[in-house]
Amino acid sequence: MTILVVGGAGYIGSHMVKMLLGRGYGVTTLDNLSTGYRDAVLGGEFIHGDLADRTLLDKVFSEHRIDGVMHFASFIQVGESVQNPAKYYENNVVNTLNLLNAMVAHDVKRFIFSSSAAVYGEPIRVPIDETHPKNPINPYGRSKWIVEQILADYDRAHALKSVCLRYFNAAGADPDGQLGERHEPETHLIPLVLQAASGRRESVQVFGRDYDTPDGTCIRDYVHVTDLCEAHLLAMDRLLKGGSSAAFNLGNGNGFSVQEMIDTACKVTDKDIQVNDAPRREGDPARLVADATLARKELSWNPCYDELETIVRHAWQWEIAGSR
Ligand code: UDP
Predict the structure, then answer these.
(1) What single-letter DSSP state applies at residue 290?
(2) Which atom in ligand 1 lies closest to the alpha carbon of residue 188?
């Protein structure tokens, strides 16, 4: 079995490549290295190239027998998507369409898509299940929801089978310490808190203490990157066995507040972390927690790193290695 991992040099994609190799799959990674790192791709074949390049895509699909595609290559910064929607629609939508068209042309019919809880927008009920209305509130979320709808059309028209995995807050790092989160600039809470703990950064900001939550800070559902990758394997397995297209939430169903996250980081790192209060960040819902019952039931997904302390410990292991 050979899987094409698009965006395999990025945070989640690189963990996926490692897991696929460990489970005996053939892996070809395609990445333009715009935000990823070549040294994060721990094996398999690496192709440096862009999804906008249809000639390259045709070459990749002609020269390899690809059994399925996992697509991680997208821009992920919500604020930037509001400032520069073209960047998000061009890469996350148009380039994905290019990839899907190349797949159809070469008769590759299995696709796992990295979607997001951002497709739901401001929740009207929590925990959020897959039937919750899709009202994305920024171009990032809209780009993911547009692709999900394109995938439904491509299933009907071309029998291209897909699984959309709606990640809640991807977090943590490779338990072996070989890989982790390396965003530039970093905007995510856990790496920022840990950088404040290691001294790479002076402090961390808390964006709002006046939310309608027990301690006033936002609540999120953090899910370990390795558990996300397991779900991708199970999703691909579903399609390889002839299963139908579907969309699943991926989260632990446990919400933790920003303050609880900082407290956990203090405990795990045994460091003082300088915290500054800051105004709310635009577009942040108070609570985002997944109901992932469907993924547990239909994919037999069973996250093994659902303890916040474990997630933070693995991320800390990576932060210490990087800041040495
Ligand atoms: N957050 C924060 N300070 C930061 C970064 C994030 O207080 O420096 C908060 C943010 O407002 C949100 C939560 O931490 O409530 C998780 O944010 P992150 O950007 O990690 O993920 P998101 O929920 O936006 O996908």
Answers:
(1) B
(2) 20
Q: For residues 33 and 45, what is the distance between their CA atoms, to the nearest angstrom?
A: 15
> Catalytic site residue 140?
yes
By alpha-carbon position, which residue is closest to atom 19 of ligand 1? Answer: 188
User: What is the per-residue DSSP string for 291-319?
Assistant: --HHHHHHS----S---HHHHHHHHHHHH
Answering whether pTM is above 0.90, one says yes
Given the CA of residue 168, which atom of ligand 1 is nearest to it? 25
Residue 268's domain is classified under what CATH number? Answer: 3.90.25.10
Asked if residue 178 belongs to a domain, the reply is: no
Same domain flag for 10 and 82: yes
- pLDDT tens by residue, 26-45: 999 999 999 999 999 999 99
* Cα(218) to centroid(ligand 1), Å: 8
Domain boundaries, position 311: 189-221+253-321
Q: How many structural domains compose the chain?
A: 2
